[in-house]
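Weekly puzzle thread! Below is a chain. First person to post its structure in token form gets bragging rights.
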Amino acid sequence: MNTNESVATRYTTLRSDSVHELEIKRSRFITYLFRVESESAAREHIAALRKTHFDARHHCTAFILGPDRMTQRSNDDGEPSGTAGIPMLDALAKRETGDDGVLTDVLAVVVRYFGGIKLGAGGLVRAYSEAVSSALDQAALLPRQRLRIYTMPAAHATAARYENELRAAGYQIEPTQWLAESALVHIGIPDTPAAADELHTHVATLTAGAGKLTAADTRWVDLI
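Winning reply:
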């Protein structure tokens, strides 16, 4: 495996961006959730919200990026240290997503309009954690999976039949490459040893042992 390749083969992210508002002791906590895949994209959303809510007292943030969640950032934005960003980050990191892997590639921004009543350190921790958790409760999520692409040379006369039969068997078929002498069928499977073994067995049966599979690149896909 390429040393830069993710260990994770599945994870969960947002299906779409969302917003949720919570009022606690007259303070408004407006939580924005964004699907992001880079730190620069996250910071662009944060900058845009600062302009939209220019009159808010705080714009606290937390985000987790990457299939292995290697990038995690948080910011209290003027709230007492550790009372906003870290509770928000914890709410993202500890979100249960069942068998679809951990939650990542997500940014949470909580815009707070102060209502005149101080919440205290403990109250702030609970408020920011609840703001993100309740927003996630209402958010639409989707799983993503890493596919390993395999290529298989085939004669022009048989390539279409192989495509159809593999597709009918549940395999992800990518566009076939039509070369001068032959075709190159592209097949996507979950990037696991078990799935690879199953594909090799299926192809051997389908082609009477003539099919030769070569592992190519990987890519992440949304599982709609």
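Puzzle host: Confirmed. Bonus trivia for everyone else. Helices lie at 39-52, 85-93, 120-138, 156-168, 193-206.
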